[in-house]
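Archive entry: two folds, one per protein. Generate the first.
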Amino acid sequence: MEMTQTQIIAVANHKGGCGKTSTVVHLAAELVESGKKVLVVDLDPQANASLHIGTKHPSEVEVTSAELLSSDNNLLIDALEEETSFRNVSLIYGSLNLGKTEDQLKEYSPRPNEELKSKLEPLVGIYDFILIDCPPSLKILTSNALSAADSVIIPIESGSQYGLYGVTDLINHISKINRINPNLKLLGTLLIKHDKRQNVCKLIQDETENTVGYLFNTTIPTSTKVNQAAILKQSLIALDKKSKIRLAFQDLTNEILMRLK
């Protein structure tokens, strides 16, 4: 089997509702469209990425990311689900049990922030991309994602005056994780629900540019199609290939591939 250069990307922001999951899900579909083999790792107790991509309900799955992280045994093969509702996208399911996992890691793991990195190691060279959907917090689960990742994407809700709230905490957290994972870099900040005609969006864009920088040129517009796709368990490509939002995710994917070259 030909070995491949694996890129591990964490999509993180401890603010809820800023589009982390939809970024992970639709980026996964677009990467497959450009010929890549993709794995999604769901580290969010709400397991929305799993509900969207998976063919089973997370509560029916025996080995999720929670069991993978908290077990001493190598459960990777059991956790990997290759049959999903997205062609060529594999999944490690999220689970409500992830809430307990943080405490277990703190108590039992000698390196609580590095469990995911060691558990995913055998997959390096097998997938082109591993995308990690982080929970809305800066605790151990997000630290695990950042410790395992090569790069991080920060989605920011552009249409909200609280969009940038706490982003400096996240940037500081990333620099702390750099002590464990010196290779981790910020791939870009991504404006979600962005409408360039709105003043609040323009302000958030300028403010992001000034405080964080690394803005993607591509912005993601508001669209009801994101919810439709989630309900129908489809990608935007399957739902409406020529829609504005689908084309935005296609542009984002091309921009990411360019940045990683």
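Generate the second and append.
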Amino acid sequence: MTSVTALLLCDVQLGLGGPRVDVAVTDGRVSAIGPGLPREGELIDGRGGTVLPGLVDVHVHMTQWASSRRRIPLAHAKSAAEVVGTIVRESAAKPGELVMGHGFRDGAWPDVPHKDLLERALPGQPVALFSNDLHTLWLSPAALRLIGREHPTGVLLENDCMAATAELPAATDEWVLEATDAAAARGVTEIADYEYSDTVTDWLRRLALRQLGVRVSAVISRPLLDTAIERGHRTGELIPGADGMLKVGPYKLFVDGSLNTRTAYCHDPYPGQNTHGLLELPFDELVPLMDKASRHGISPAVHAIGDRANTIALDAFAKVGCAGRIEHAQLVHPDDLPRFAQLGVIAGVQPAHQPDDRDVADQHWTGRTANAFPYGALLAAGATLEIGSDAPVSPLDPWDGIASAVSRTDDGRPAWHPEQSIALDIALAAASRGRRSIQVGDVADLTVTGIDPGTLAPHELREIPIVLTMVGGRLTHVG
């Protein structure tokens, strides 16, 4: 990456409630911080904003997020019938063109999705509708034919959903690049891309088109472990030829499904159902995969949402003896809380999911919600939290997650289990890979907000203005 060799960010507040300073950047790093620094090099007016470490979204499905920005939104729908009505009303597709929608949550619906509902409303039209958690894909008969599949209901779950998603038309590279610019506009300087494709190849191709708005950690999907090993990839290492913008991410494995599909794997059965959820990767299969990856310098990132899935994932980390990540950790048994710190396992969490899922959690995790989205308890047990969005499950906007972590609500209702809320400064650090302040010598990945976040009510954080975003001394957004 070509860095500005002499840049001065003028007139900013240093962190929450901090002093007024200038920040000098040389060769992509912070070289001086203080009031009244010499006015040398390129001068960047901070407009009196608050300078913070650059925000990092540690869990994104970037291609799907770029696509969802152009899909019909369905989060408001309270039934399958309402979804169908929305699609009929909002679709402007020509006959035969694929209609795509995103964001439905069917966990508490009074009816059930089915391909016949779509066929009756839009005969012969290919329609693909993605659930908010990306674990359910609802297809019309024509959409099933488009990808050469047959299915009795058209409602595909878990592995079937993800395989079919990969076969549908995907976002263009230009859509993805535009999405990185939109992320930079919210103060994001880095993402971790959890797509199921060859993410390294995808991002090298995009880099050949133009500069990225964010750095990218390219996560390795389960089928590509041997490919990553053959390439000599190791988690955290920079990819040659990417100008410092692309590095190798962790190795993604799934233990269970999700809450809304009732496939999160739990110790207790779901109320009124003879099921504990779906165990996608048993302990005896999980351990050798994690062991193989870790022996080659590739760190595991294990998807675990239900409490039993988290127990299995932690047992596997203990067996293998490696550090890594558990992604989501939405329901955690109290006995497992201290094990995160003991085993060196980071909890990659998505606080914006908690307000979205509170009602379905009350319904399907009855009596256990004190252990759900347990951020306060994890912190008290010494765990390290890192905040992501899981976009498009929630928007690629760290301020949404920060606000939810602090307030435990996103509407007019009281906080849900407020004992699990966390302080703003801790949430900001969790959204910045642990960086709490800017220091001389840091890589100049910086965010400047127009208002000191510490002066805002939690709900106001979602709309905080961004003055500028900087990656390695290069401006990626100016508001």
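Annotation attached to the second fold: The chain has 15 helices and 21 strands. Residues 1-54+437-479 form a domain with the Urease, subunit C; domain 1 fold (CATH 2.30.40.10).
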